[in-house]
């Protein structure tokens, strides 16, 4: 009997002394693994996993290991919203991020709001994401169409003043948003002088792009504004090159990413101009130490350079971590308060989450694709971008008055 009592006492002591592992902190990544934006989706996944691994090696978030739970949106808004609901209701994720199509991000963000979770837009450029469709639980990490148009117009007005433009635009919310913004800031609202055509989304065919490009050629325009993204831009640009248009017109791709440039290749891409919130050469050109650390860690791990999408996903995970640690809790309402107005320096110069619309305010860039020989000099044959112009975030972003005007037009309240 004495031996049994001693054994029981020993076992109880062990139970008290043995630390109980904290429950994992789950975050959900909702991105396209398939479809026309799959390359941008893959980059998000790679950036997110790198951030999670680094954070876990450093002790997690408030002592809790971070677990990344992923879902495939296939670029479908309904599927994005369904995934979001399942990630919260079944998996118990505390925060979600992702998106490439703005329609997917908007639908997913609404599903997150309905379940009191934050949704960070990782690659969503439509003004509506933090504008007409914005709400308290949506935070957008990259720039938007308005900011893209502002920085591009600054450059184009000096280089192509008086030239005619032709617009080829993906027929959905992002495309409409970008074209409207670029027309506004480049003074090309006259659609008779500066013509354009819409291409189907998400099922445009090569014949759709060829027909649009034939109209562009016939217009005699000097600037070809290709408001296309992902595989659509890749396919259209290949056709434009075959037709000789890249030599006749200045091709502008408003939202230009490394993945898209890499898919098209350096020969066809040379001289093309676009906008970007970040490219991997920025930290080296402006000497941002933390940005260089990220590029080198990503390049070493994956044997490729990171794109804007990878940087966005990586930054979001760290921003969430820091907000949780400042708040001392994962409570959504308190995290929102911690994010609003928060300023930080991470992969580039100072950025902040603007309180009234949850848009991330940051420096934006105009880039031009370098000649092939310069691109290939990089260890990973990926030195595509020459930074040719930039604009501070506060100058590029909508003012509060401009934002409120858009909200009124959409019948939305003037606060989130």
Automatic annotation (TrEMBL):
Superkingdom, natural source: Bacteria
InterPro entries per record: BCAA_transport, Leu-bd, Peripla_BP_I
Keyword Lipid biosynthesis among record annotations: no
Xref: Pfam families: Peripla_BP_6
Keywords assigned: Signal
Position of the signal peptide: 1-22
Residues covered by the Leucine-binding protein domain: 25-370
Keyword Signal attached: yes
Family assignment from sequence similarity: Belongs to the leucine-binding protein family.
Protein name: ABC transporter substrate-binding protein
Taxonomic source organism: Marinobacter iranensis
